[in-house]
Amino acid sequence: MAMNRPVRTRPTAQCLEVVAFYDAHPINEDQILAALRRRGVALERLTEDVLQEHDQDHFGGIAANDILAAQAQIEPRHHVLDVCSGMGGPARYLAQRIGCRVTGLDVTRSRYESAVRLTQLTKLEHLVDFKLADALHMPFEEASFDVVIGQEAWCHVPDKARLIAECARVVKPSGAIAFTDILRRAPLEAAKMQRLQRAMPFPTLETFDGYAALLAQNGCLVTHREDVSEHWAQILVQRLAMYRRLEADTVGKFGAEHYRLWDETYAFFVALFRENKLGGGRFVARKR
């Protein structure tokens, strides 16, 4: 697979807030390794079966990976691209469970470097690799991948139209684009949207119909779309409780003020789901 397109590794001005957000995220490599050590896990013998209990930082965990893989019909022969792959949890899981090759793409250097190190610890480098680059300027040739996936991260990408166009460009004809994302379900007051833009950060939020339209405009037939808002609202209440259990780790790494702001922001985010202002969608499309 040729990959001689220019690689944009330096975040744009619009991406810098996203990078800062994930550089100070409560779920991080140090937190994961500390949790493993507390369990008495020897890192030199770390396996994906053990790591997957700690590194699946998306809504629904392993079950969500399995649903997306089944709906995208991922097979061992496939090369999968995970767009906005973070620390690589889903990439490693899919590679081990299915036997497919997976390439992860992320613009946050700290997440990219953690993904590489954690993959080395689990000895999955023969199936999983990562690229540090902007999802709006993917360093891949056309029709490079059998499947493109993403999980709740495209909300951070400022230009959804270009993002979907890039996904459609790099997937092969008849290949799948399968993803979940945070959506806008109802009009948001300006102050609330500005807070989401500043604190989460979500530069824009797409709608359920908006993503379907973008996929169609880029030559993709939507084969499945599902509103998962109610399920995610329940998951988010649990995630808020989980983040609160990580208070000591978060304060130790980033300070008490950072923890306080994170807790306030995430509680605000969860409330918007419970008010049906925000929601979630799962989409599967095939490139014509």
Would you give an account of this structure?
With 288 residues, the chain is an alpha/beta fold. The chain contains twelve helices and seven strands. Strands 3-2-1-4-5-7-6 form a seven-stranded mixed β-sheet, sandwiched between helices. α10 (229-245) runs antiparallel to α12 (256-274) and α11 crosses α12 (256-274). The longest helix is centred in the C-terminal third of the chain and has 19 residues, at 256-274. The radius of gyration is 18 Å and the shape is globular.
Offer a few descriptive terms.
288 residues, alpha/beta, Rossmann fold, seven-stranded mixed β-sheet, 7 strands
Summarize this structure briefly.
Helices cover 47% and strands 19% of the residues.
Provide a count of the helices: 12
What is the total tally of β strands? Answer: 7
Element-level helix/strand string:
HHHHEHEHEEHEHHEHHHE
CATH architecture: 3-Layer(aba) Sandwich
Topology (SSEs and partners):
Blueprint: H1 13-23, H2 29-38, H3 48-51, H4 61-72, E1 79-83, H5 89-98, E2 101-106, H6 109-121, E3 128-132, E4 145-151, H7 160-170, E5 171-184, H8 190-199, H9 208-217, E6 220-227, H10 229-245, H11 247-254, H12 256-274, E7 278-287
Parallel strand pairs: 1-2, 1-4, 2-3, 4-5
Antiparallel strand pairs: 5-7, 6-7
